[in-house]
Amino acid sequence: MDGKEHPGTDPQAMLADWLKTANKFWARPEQGQPREEQPGKKEPPRSLQDSFLSIMKTLGTLSTAMGDPQVMNAAFRGASILPDITSSLMKSGMQALLTLQNQLSEKAGKLGAGAEPRTFDTIDRDTLQAWSTMYEEEIQRYLNIPQLGLNRFYQERINRAIDRYTVFVTSLTEFLQILQVPFEKTTRAMNEKIEEIASADALPEDSREYYRMWVKTLEGHFMTLFKSPQYTGALGNTLASYEDYLLSRNSIIQDLLQSFPIPTNREMNELYKEIYLLKKKVRKLEKAGGKG
Amino acid sequence: MDKPKIPVDLIIKHLAEEAGQVHERAQKASDILLGSLETEIATTPYEVVHEEDRVRLKHYHPSPGAKSEIKTPLLVVYALINRETMLDLQPERSVVKSFLQNGINLYMIDWGYPTAKDKFLTIDDHVNVYMDNIVDVIREREGVEKVNVMGICMGGTFCVIYSALHPEKVKNLITTVCPTNFDTQQGLLHIWMKGLNADKMVDTYGNMPGDIMNFGFLLLNPARLMIDKYIGFFENMDDKSFVENFIRMEKWIFDSPDVPGETFRQFIKDLYQNNLLIQSKLMVGGRRVDLGKITMPLLNIYAQFDHLVPPGAAENLSRAVGSTDTEDLCLDTGHIGIYVSSKTQKEFAPKIVQWLKDREGRRKPDHQVVPPRKKPARARANSTVKKKPLST
Q: How many separate helices (H) and strands (E) can be counted in chain B?
C-alpha cells in the first residue's frame, strides 16, 4: 500500500458524489410539482401527497446536511469505531478460547494423574470452569441486552431460554464429569489391588471374581462421592438449572399457545385450582349438612 | 524382586470355558425371550368397591377354605411413589396371597395416577379426605367401628398421621418401612433431601414426575442398580423363571405415578427438612398431629439394610406414640426385600397375621412393652422397646 487513496475508490469522495445526486433527487418532487391554486375553488386536502412531500423534504435536508464536509468527517469518525468494536470483541473471545484450549491441553497431559482413590477433593473442574467463565463473560451478557419494541418481551423470553439451556448443559456436563470420577478411581484401585494379590500369588482364576471386586470397589467410591459436598453441589446446580431452563422454555410455549384457539397451561391451572377449592367447599358443606 | 506368578494359562482356560457357556446361554436365552413369558403382576382377584377422583379401594376376594379368625378388616395404604402392585408381584411371593390364605379381610388403596388437576392436593386431602372416606366405607360395609390399618413407606407416614387425627376409627396400627424421623444421617436420601429446593421443583413441574424420582433412586446406588443388576440378568437369561420374575420387578419398579405437587412440597419441607412429625408439631388440615393420641397397639416393622428408610428413620416411632402396646421388628433385609424376598416371605406376613390375631377381640391394650412415656424423644431413645430381629 502506498498510503494514497485512489480517487475512484475513496469512500469519502464516493459518498459525497452519492449525496449530491440524492440531494437533487429528493428536491425534485417538491420543485417539479408546484401546486396550482384555482381562484374560487377550494383545493381538496391532499394529505398523502403532502406527507410524501414532507418526508422528501426532510430526506433532502438530511442529504444536504450530510453533504457538508465537516458532518461527513464526523460521521466517518463514528463509523471507523465499528471495526474497533469488532476487533475488540474478537480479541476478547479469542483470549477466552485460548484459555479454554490451554485448559484442555493441560487436562490431556494430566489424564489419570489426579485419580487418587477414596478422595474426591481433587476433581478437575478447570476446563469446565474455563468454558463457564467464557460463557458468562463473552456470550451471556449479549443474551441479557434489553430488547426494544413490540416484540421485546417475546425476544427476551427466547434469549432467556437460550441462556438457561446453555447454563443447564454446562451444569449437566459438570455433573456427568463428577459421575465418571468413581470409574476412574476404581480402575486405578483395581490396578493396585491386582498388583498386590499378584505379588502374593493369589490371583483368582475365575474372571467373575475380578468383576465382583470391581463392582464392590466402584460401589464404595460412589458412596464416598455421594456424601461429598462437590457432588451435592453439582446435583443441586444441575437440578436448579434444569428447572430454570424448563420454566423459560414453558414461557415460550405459553407465548406460542396464545395464538392457538386452545387454553394455555396457565389458564388450565387457574381452572384446576378453582375446581379444587370448589370441591373442598362442597365437601365441607356436605359434612355440615350431614351433621345437621 | 521376583516377578509375581500370574496363572495366565488357567485364566485363559477359564475364559475359553466361559465363552462356550455364554454361547450356550445366549441360545437358550433367545428361546426364552422369544417364547411366551408370564410376567403379569397383581393377578390376585379383587373388586373395586369405592372410587373417588383418581383413588380406588380394592377389596380382595377371600381365599377359599381360609379360616377367618381375624374379623376386623385390614386396610393397606401404599405410598404415593410406585404402586401397591408390589405386594402381589408374583404368585409365590405375594403378601396379598399370604394375608388372604390366613383369613384376613383385605382392603387396599390404589392411589392411581395423578394428573395436572391433582397438583393442588395436599397431605390433608390424602389423609383427611380420601383415607377417611375409605375407612368410613369399610366400616359401613363391614359393620365395624374400627379397622386395622397397615401403611407402607410413605403410606405408613399417612397411616401414622391418620391414626393420630382419627384414633377412634383405628383398632391396630402396623407401619412397615415407614419414615417418621427425618433427622438422621443414615441413608443418602435424608442427606440429599435436606438441600432440595422443593418450592422450585413444584413450581416447575406441577406434580413431581415419577421418572425423575426413579432416576434419583437409581443414583442412590448406581453400581448395583444400573450395572450389577443387569449383569445379573444377562448371567441368568437362560433361566425362564428368573427372567419372568426379573421382568415383573422391572415392570413394577418403573411404574411410577407422579406425586401431587403440594403433597410433595409439604412432605419435603415439613418432614424431610423440618422433621415435624416425630416432634408432634406437624400441622395437617389445620390440626396438630399429636403422636401421643396414637393409643392403639402399634407394630413397627423396618429393615436393617434399607437404603431409603434406614432404621434410624423408622425406629423412633414406637417411643413417640401414646400407645402402651408397641413392638418394633427389624428384619435383616432391604426396603423392597421385606415384601418380596423369599426369606422374609416366611417371616413378614406370618408375623403380622399372628400379631393381629393376638389383638383380635381385645378391647384394652396389654402391656407387652412398657417403655416410659412422655419423656423427651432424645431421652427415650434408649428405652427398652422390644426389638426382635427375626432373622438373626
A: 18, 10
Domain membership flag for residue A213:
yes
Asked if B377 reaches chain A (Cβ–Cβ under 8 Å), the answer is no
A283 part of contact set with chain B, CB < 8 Å: yes
Count of domains observed in chain A = 1
* φ/ψ (deg, to 5) at A61: -60, -45
With a cut of 50, say whether residue A170 has pLDDT above it: yes
pLDDT category of residue A90 using cuts at 50, 70 and 90: low
The model scores a pTM over 0.90: no
Among chain A residues, CA nearest to B262: A273
- For residue B146, the SS3 value is coil
pLDDT score, position A5:
45
- What domain range includes position A247? 89-105+119-261
The answer to whether residue A79 is domain-embedded is no
Contacts with B197 from chain A: Cβ below 8 Å: 236, 239-240
Nearest CA in chain B to A211: B228
Q: What b/e sequence results for B10-47 when a residue is b if at least 16 CB atoms lie within 10 Å of its CB, and e otherwise?
A: ebeebeeeeeeeeeebeeebeebeeeeeeeebbebebe
Write the residue in B120, B197, B205 that is nearest to A276 by C-beta. Answer: B120
By Cβ distance, the residue of A207, A243, A283 closest to B201 is A243
Q: Are B149 and B125 in contact (CB under 8 A)?
A: no
Is B153 an active-site residue? yes
pLDDT at A82 exceeding the cut of 90: no
Question: For residues B103 and B106, what is the distance between their CA atoms, to the nearest angstrom?
Answer: 9
Q: Which residues of B touch A272 (CB under 8 A)?
A: 116-117, 119-120
What are chain B's domains? 46-380 (3.40.50.1820)
pLDDT in the model for residue A81: 53
Mutate to test the interface with B, among A224, A276, A285 (most CBs of B within 10 A): A276
